[in-house]
Design brief:
By secondary structure, this protein is mostly beta strands. About 0% of the residues lie in helices and about 60% in strands. The chain is elongated, with a radius of gyration of 14 Å.
Amino acid sequence: MLKGTVVSDKPNKTITVVVERKYQHPVLKKVIKAKKKYSVHDKDNKFKNGDKVTIVECKPYSKSKKFEVLGDSK
């Protein structure tokens, strides 16, 4: 389960979610922010840009869509 923000809702039944995580570099001990974009299945087209969502891994819907929306994360 991952939490992120919707950055695109253009394609039908698909949203793009950015998940941001922080980790400490093993040698330099500096905290680094990493971002990753996921294509997520949204069967009802109900999420819009800026919404906070929780996504979960599922069966592949297409070549790039391997996650679906679990719900709002407030």
